[in-house]
Amino acid sequence: MNPDINIAIAGVGNCASSLVQGIAYYQNGGANEQIGLMHWDLGGYRPKDLKVVAAWDVDARKVGRDVDEAIFAEPNCTQVFCDHVKPTGAVVRMGRKLDGVADHMADYPAERTFVVADEAEPSQEDVVRVLKETNAHVLMNYLPVGSQQATEFYAECALEAGVAFVNCIPVFIASDPAWAKRFEQRGVPIIGDDIKAQLGATIVHRVLTDLFAKRGVRLDRTYQLNTGGNTDFLNMLERSRLKHKKESKTEAVQAVAERRLDDENIHVGPSDYVAWQNDNKVCFLRMEGRMFGGVPMNLELRLSVEDSPNSAGVAIDMIRCAKLALDRGQGGAIHPPAAYFCKHPPIQMTDDEALHATEAFIRGEQKKQFH
Fold this sequence. Notes:
Layout (H helix, E strand, L loop, with lengths): L4 E6 L3 H12 L24 E8 L9 H4 L21 E3 L29 H10 L4 E4 L6 H14 L2 E4 L9 H10 L2 E3 L9 H14 L3 E11 L2 H5 L7 H12 L11 E8 L6 E11 L5 E11 H21 L4 E2 L1 H7 L9 H12 L9
Parallel strand pairs: 1-2, 1-4, 2-3, 4-5, 5-6, 6-11, 7-8
Antiparallel strand pairs: 7-9, 9-10
Helix pairs in contact: 1-9, 3-4, 6-8, 10-11
């Protein structure tokens, strides 16, 4: 087993910032200091084993800088929780723009949005060469929501280079049978799609929906409204980029309901951009149902979290699961961790089922039907 996990990153935004900070934060200490992690040791890999070896972005303030500096450049605005990130030796390269930058972003101040670098974009051959030269094991897709073409570009690069692909955004690759088949045929693992935060709106909504079902409460209608002030929320003001995002978040809740709700009785999705919130995400959740005797009840919840660290705690486990699959020669969609860590996996499970299946996968006891 290779003692290191070499990571390449497509999109050096807030989520990448939190991940890289987290790798530094957990470099020292032992299992007793694992606060914030679901696993200190995952299949023999610890946080200190993760190394960033390559990265791509399109912002002029990040391209050409070491990842340790680029993660703190504008428009990144997530919380700085680790101020001792050491140089990685990986310089951010110019990436492929394609549909990764929404047109409306140009209408906002530079400190809030992208300043696209005036540099030549790489070809697929360029990216594949870097992945191979750096001996990357896992390519993280942290592109903006709605980046269908750009995501497919990096997925193609991962396939050709034989690098595991972790798709953290709601562009359907792992859950697309055609793409999953291609990864399986090439013997390359993929985990996705759309990362489910550690304790975010989706997992809380799912747990409560499952609780309604287990306790015999009929869920009649529900909504989840989210606001935030990072570039992700700004990007999502272009509603056409939200098709897969809304589908992903809605299906994550529907999948654990006692019965599927009619479309008019469920609303799950991003709602608005509030600049001063920065990377803080606020979720407003309402659930209406009927209890014993048909007596009505309702539940309202407000959840406030720092969005990017909330996903990084999951990403660090997704990376290690992808590396385990590589070590074992498993290709295609890796179903248990996808179901546990993602909103739109190829196979939906309840969170309890996904947890047990993922722990079995980590132990090397993956069931055949999930392979």
